[in-house]
Structure formats: structure tokens, C-alpha cells
Write a structure and sequence with these properties.
The complex is a heterodimer of chains A (259) and B (313). Chain A has 259 residues and is an alpha/beta fold. Chain A has eight helices and 14 strands. In chain A, helix 2 crosses helix 8. By secondary structure, chain B is of the alpha/beta class. Helices cover 35% and strands 21% of the residues of chain B. Chain B is built from eleven helices and 13 strands. Chain B has helices spanning 3-14, 28-35, 54-62, 78-84, 105-113, 126-138, 153-156, 205-211, 265-274, 278-290, 295-311; strands at 41-43, 68-74, 88-95, 97-98, 102-103, 120-123, 142-145, 160-164, 171-176, 182-190, 196-197, 214-222, 242-247. In chain B, strands 1, 2, 3, 6, 10, 11, 12 and 13 form an eight-stranded mixed beta sheet that branches. A three-stranded antiparallel beta sheet of chain B has the order 7-9-8. A two-stranded antiparallel ribbon of chain B has the order 4-5. The chains are: A alpha/beta (259), B alpha/beta (313). At the A-B interface, helix 3, helix 4, strand 9, helix 5 and helix 6 of A face strand 3, helix 5, helix 6 and helix 8 of B.
């Protein structure tokens, strides 16, 4: 492993922590923005045989040559392994052929439910968010789900206002009762730490990032924080991991280094 | 005429049809006026972030179309513009925003404040929207899925009906079929009879074309009859459903068209900044849509700005 980097942003730490959740040879469904960068890091380092589906109707067996602003950029198409219909690629997801999906979201709760639809009452919302797109399907159907979220108290709420993408509902075998085929969230990776989920579907802090602390995470989380017995520190980005992110995103368009 | 073209022409004549007869080729203004009346249920942006038919949408705005129902998975900023211009009553969608910039400001104003008018939203996932269109194209009343079980989408969208499997009694979501009046596709090549080649990621373009009552094609290039049917596997939808073919080079700007144009990222980001306020949006709309008579003038304006920004370091 290359030596740890010194100067990196919380977004970059989140991306590398998420990338380490992808195993070699896996079939991955990739959401836009940060998840794509996490896939790029994994594919270049520890998961060279992983392949990625994009919901617009693409399958990548190799990486795009440059940063994607959207998953349907010409660079996403050039050299793709398959260019086809959305119902076919999401259909493979529904057929149980996707190991893991990576998505972001606006609001998350202690059971890993994601809201990207309404803040407030859906009949008179404070904020109308864009909606779920393919993320609702990822959360319902993927073998497991990796959530990526900037860690802010307003986003980490006890109960989401609206379940766009189901996590573990209200816990206690909720997914089994709903008969959701996918496995549900295996990790919630934030700009401050990494959460995993216990047997009743509740998030607990598994590690905090080197620039953060459990106290800071508790203050930015809207539910009583549960800690892993072996709570540790997330390994910081290595120089190699960081150089891959910056190769694709030299100006920090997605990672926010310049914003 | 090149030898292959001569051969194609001869081939067409031997079948008793000749290219150019029964032409569906027309202008953007006429195609929109004739085939997309007020109140239409229309699919736009079927290929998600690519090949979005912006020129057709801008013509809808210029003709002050009203009470439209927009149908699409991820339309990038196209739905936002139509909503902001007051053309839309209802949106049946997977995601409405500005993909590389953030939230959709006009969409927000319409839902949160009924500005410029109220907007009803039917939220789908990208899969459920694709299945709704696929069902219509198959003549099926619904298609069942296990996606969205336990999510809040079925509680708010009457076209996602919770049910049980007749086979084993397990819970399912029945996605009701959705048949649009018209599907507008921007493609790389089309001929006057309505054969169209679309390549790149296809999104729900095929499902939307098969589900719709009629299909309107805008194309980077209109090519002679017989060329595209040399490789009919590539033809995206049955030409007999196509009612109009419009040559519209650059008609998907600022979205990309594989083989023709890159994505103009900065145009999306500028729109995001300017549409943040109602006044800013209206000024943008005047500059890029209402104050521009057609696609040619739009590209002239774009080119003039490009030249200007190159001249000022």
C-alpha cells in the first residue's frame, strides 16, 4: 500500500472509504457524481475485474478516459462494453445479477432509509428535491448498497420525511416483511466516518475519519450515536488513491477542493 | 449520385416505392404545431442525459404550449425550462434536476410555490417508468416488479399499485401501463419516411416510441431513403409510427449526441446560476428561447458568444 497522503478533503476521504467496499470481480451499479469516482479508484487499484452498469443503458468493463459530468457523457459511451436500454440494465439488477450499488442522497436516517424527494410534508414541501431516479431501484434490488453522504446534522435525521430508497425501514426484519429482494445498506460512508448496520438494521459508527472524531460525529447526527465495540480510525487515503481521484478530477469539480 | 445510392434507389423502385414519396420531412415549427397540441402527454429526454431534444422543447415554449404532461426518467434541465415557461400541468418523472449542477430551480418554484403555475408530480423510479412505457408497448395493462416495495413512491403515485402475485401470493408493485400521445426523440440520422438511427445509451427511447400514439423525430442529419434500411437492426422504432422528421443539427445542445457533439457543461452551470431567481430565469428564457426565432438563430447566438469570449482573455 502506498503511504498515507497528508492533504486531502473530507470528500476525497469519503470516496476512498467507499471504494474500499467494492471487491474484485463484482458487478456494480454506479450512481452519478461521487459514486462514480469511488468506482474509478476501486477499479484502478483493488478491483480491476469489477464492471459497472450505468442506468442510462451502459456497461463499462474498462474505465472512461476522463471525468464524467454525467453518466451519459460521450466519454462514458466510448469504449463501453455494452450500450443498450435502461430497462435491460435495471432489469439485470431486478433479476439479482448486481452485487453492489453505490448511491448518494439528501437525507438519511438511522435505518439507512434515503430521502431524495421531499423535505417536509409532501403535500406542501419546504424543498422539492429531484427524486430518486434509479436509486430507488438500487436500494430495493442490489445485493448490497453503499450509501455516500456529506455528514451534516440537517441530513442525518431520526426518521426521513419520505422513503425514496428503502434501507431497513423501521428495523427488525422490515426488508424481509416487505419482501425486498436486495440485501440493503452494508455501509453508510460519510465525510466524517463509516457506519455499518447491526442485525436489527440500525446504523452504528464503525470508524471515524482521521480528521474527525466520534464527538463531532455525534454532534452532526440527529439520532443517539451507537458505536462499534472496536471503534477505530478509518485509514486515510493513500497517495495512490488520492492521485487517481485527482487524475480524473484535477480541479476538484466533484470533490470540492476548490469550492 | 454514388453507385451505392443508385443501387439503393433501384432497389426501392423495384419494391414499388421510391424515396421521397410520402415524405414526413417538415420544419420544427410545423411539426410542433401539428403534432403536439395543448394538453399532450409527451415523452422528452428518453435517453436520460444524452440526446435531449432541446430544440423541440424550445419550440413548444415559443408556441406557448399549455397543460402538457411531461414524461421522462432524467431530463436534465429540459423539464425545468418547460415548467418555468408555464407549459406544464403534470410531470411523470424519475428525477428532475440539473445533473452536473444541482437542484432544478423552476421545478422547485412550481411545486413549492405554484410559480408560474401549480405542478402535479407523479414520482417513478427509472425502472418503474421504463416498465410503465414497456407495458403500453406490449399492450399489457401493467407489469409487476419487486422494486419499490416498502418505499413511499407507491403511496403517492396511483400508477404504482401494491398487489400480490397470483402465483405465490408474495407482495409486488403493479406498474400501470403509460401510453403517451407523442414521443419526441433526437437521433443521429433519419430519412424522410421516418426510419431513424439512434445510437449511444438508449435510455427508455425504444419503450417510449413503442408506447406512444405517434413519434416525432428530430435528427442531426436527414439522409436519402433506403440508406438506413440497409441495416434495419439499427432502426430505433417502426417508421409507420413516425409522423414528422425534422432536420435539426445541434438540436440537442447543450446535451451530447454521440458521434456529433460533446456536452456543453458550462451552459448547464450557467443556467443553474441564472435560473436561481424567477427574474434570472425569465431573462435566460428571453435570451435563449423566446428572443430566438429558431435553432439556426440559437446556434448563431451561441457562436457569437463563443467568438466574443475567445476575443476577451
Amino acid at each position: 500500500m502506498s503511504p498515507p497522503a497528508q492533504d486531502y478533503s473530507p470528500m476525497e476521504q469519503m470516496i476512498v472509504a467507499a471504494s474500499r467496499e467494492i471487491a474484485d470481480g463484482e458487478v456494480v451499479f454506479v450512481g452519478m457524481r461521487m459514486p462514480m469516482l469511488a468506482f474509478m479508484v476501486a477499479k484502478r487499484l483493488h478491483a480491476p475485474r469489477a464492471v459497472a452498469y450505468f442506468e442510462c443503458g451502459l456497461l463499462r468493463e474498462t474505465l472512461p478516459a476522463k471525468l464524467l459530468y454525467t453518466l451519459a457523457d460521450p466519454a462514458a459511451f466510448a469504449g463501453a462494453g455494452w450500450a443498450t436500454q435502461t430497462t435491460y440494465v435495471l432489469g439485470q439488477l431486478a433479476a439479482g445479477r448486481v452485487d453492489v450499488a453505490l448511491v448518494g442522497g439528501a437525507q438519511v436516517d438511522r435505518f439507512g432509509n434515503i430521502n431524495t424527494t421531499y423535505i417536509g410534508d409532501s403535500r406542501q414541501p419546504t424543498v422539492r428535491l429531484p427524486g430518486g431516479g434509479g436509486a430507488s431501484d438500487f436500494a430495493s434490488l442490489a445485493g448490497r448498497l453503499i450509501l455516500m453522504m456529506p455528514h451534516e446534522r440537517r441530513r442525518f435525521v431520526p426518521r426521513v420525511d419520505y422513503i425514496t430508497s428503502p434501507g431497513y425501514g423501521d428495523g427488525n426484519s422490515w426488508r424481509e416483511r416487505m419482501r425486498l429482494p436486495g440485501g440493503g445498506p452494508s455501509a453508510l460512508v460519510t465525510t466524517l466516518g463509516l457506519f455499518r448496520f447491526n442485525e436489527s438494521g440500525e446504523a452504528y459508527l464503525a470508524s471515524y475519519h482521521p480528521h474527525a472524531s466520534a464527538e463531532q460525529i455525534a454532534a452532526e447526527t440527529g439520532w443517539p450515536l451507537a458505536l462499534a465495540p472496536d471503534l477505530g480510525v478509518t485509514p486515510p487515503p493513500t497517495r495512490e488513491e488520492l492521485s487517481i481521484i485527482r487524475e480524473y478530477d484535477p480541479v476538484g469539480f466533484w470533490t470540492g477542493r476548490d469550492r | 449520385m454514388t453507385p451505392p445510392e443508385r443501387e439503393i434507389l433501384a432497389h426501392a423502385e423495384s419494391r414499388g416505392t421510391s424515396p421521397g414519396t410520402d415524405s414526413k420531412r417538415t420544419t420544427m415549427a410545423e411539426a410542433i404545431a401539428r403534432f403536439v397540441p395543448d394538453g399532450s402527454r409527451v415523452v422528452l429526454g428518453a435517453c436520460l442525459e444524452a440526446a435531449i431534444p432541446f430544440a423541440a422543447a424550445h419550440e413548444l415554449i415559443r408556441q406557448h404550449r399549455r397543460n402538457l404532461t411531461l414524461i421522462g426518467p432524467i431530463s436534465d434541465i429540459l423539464f425545468d425550462q418547460l415548467i418555468g415557461a408555464g407549459c406544464v400541468d403534470r410531470a411523470i418523472v424519475g428525477w428532475v434536476g440539473n445533473v452536473s449542477a444541482g437542484l432544478a430551480h423552476c421545478f422547485r418554484r412550481a411545486v413549492e410555490q405554484s410559480v408560474p403555475r401549480p405542478l402535479a408530480v407523479q414520482d417513478h423510479s427509472n425502472l418503474s417508468l421504463g416498465l410503465a412505457l414497456l407495458a403500453a408497448g406490449l399492450g399489457a395493462p401493467f407489469i409487476p416488479t419487486r422494486s419499490l416495495l416498502g418505499s413511499d413512491l407507491p403511496r403517492h403515485n396511483p400508477d404504482l399499485v401494491p398487489g400480490t402475485s397470483p402465483l405465490d401470493g408474495s407482495p409486488l408493485i403493479f406498474v400501470r401501463s403509460l401510453a403517451p400521445d407523442v414521443t419526441i426523440l433526437h437521433v443521429q440520422k433519419a430519412d424522410e419516411e421516418g426510419h431513424a438511427w439512434l445510437w449511444g445509451n438508449l435510455g427508455v427511447a425504444v419503450e417510449a416510441a413503442l408506447a406512444a400514439d405517434r413519434v416525432l423525430i428530430t435528427a442531426e442529419e436527414v439522409v436519402p431513403g433506403g440508406v438506413l434500411t440497409e441495416d434495419p437492426n439499427r432502426v430505433v422504432a417502426p417508421a409507420q409510427k413516425v409522423v414528422a422528421v425534422v432536420e435539426a443539427p445541434g438540436g440537442a445542445h447543450p446535451s451530447p449526441v454521440i458521434g456529433y457533439t460533446e456536452r456543453d457543461h458550462e451552459f448547464f452551470h450557467e443556467y443553474h446560476r441564472r435560473s436561481r431567481t424567477l427574474e434570472g430565469f425569465n431573462a435566460w428564457l428571453e435570451e435563449w428561447v423566446l428572443g430566438v426565432p429558431n435553432l439556426e438563430a440559437y446556434h448563431e447566438r451561441l457562436e457569437a458568444r463563443r467568438t466574443q469570449s475567445e476575443a476577451t482573455p
